[in-house]
Specification:
single chain, 304 residues, OB fold (Dihydrolipoamide Acetyltransferase, E2P), alpha+beta, six-stranded antiparallel sheet, seven-stranded mixed sheet, 2 domains, D-amino Acid Aminotransferase, Chain A, domain 1
Amino acid sequence: MLCRSAESLPEGELWSYEPKLDGFRAVVLRDGRVTDIRSRNDKSLAGYFPEVLWAASKTLPEHCMLDGEIVAVARGGFSFELLQRRLVAKRDSTPVAFIAFDVLSLECGSTELLALESRRELMRRAVPSNDWITEMVSTDSPVSASAWLQSWQRGIEGVVAKRVRESYRGGSRRWIKIKRRQSMDVVVGGCRPGNRLLLGVFDKRGRFSHVGETVPLNHWQVQLIRQRIALADAEVWTGRRPGVGHWEGDKYDDWIDCKRMAVVEVSYAQLEGSRFRHPVRFLRLRPDRDASSCTDGQFGQGGR
């Protein structure tokens, strides 16, 4: 998915817009008696969101596959922090919902080759509107899309622009995400005292280099990360190590290396070459992304 600033919102009759929700990208599918929720890297999320699974098994057509976002419903919008708690405590009572923005198959078979405008019409007929599964709002008006960017409603992090006559392409970069904030996906390579994460990316030769650290994590973020990292049994920094060319005043004389397995999205203010100028803010865990896909090429693009 291509990313642009708010000033570069594409316009024209070929474009349609949806709010970019602060949730987990997922596919909900029903095939007869089999129902599941799959992440983008094809891992089952059903155990974390049983109410969505139940709704899919009872209300979707017998053969159906939907692409969308799982969100945690909170006062004034959606909360990604509350959504992450479901990964820590499966019995957490935070209400969640699956908001579908595309249909990939129905009783008639695959719909992926149809134009977006046709797929949306099919989805309107097939997707019920209830507390757990509903359809994503969309608009053809750039004025309305700009309002989503300017409203700062909780849980809306931007706008996704799509061409209405295009077919569906899994993993396609033809969708354009217009962001309100600068963010990047990086890999956890270590931990420092004070609940800070050391972050890294890979270069073209596959070397893993330190690019910065987070501000201190809160309690729920710490619990979430603990489930995803493990102590390394060997050196992980095969490129630039923490403490080499670091910023004045920073000290990296006390840290623990972690296996390079957890990908996280962070929010940053400024870049300095191929690293973050200042400590960054942890936004979310990215269980749907492989660590090897987080490269230093992102720094040349100004983010994700």
